[in-house]
Amino acid sequence: MNMTKDQILFSLNREDSLDLIQKYVLENVVVDTFNKKDISSEMFRLFFNVIELGKEIRSSLKDQDYQNTELKLADIFLVLISICNSLNINLFDALEEREQVLNGKVAKWF
Question: How many CA atoms lie within 13 A of 9 on its CB side?
Answer without folding.
Answer: 12
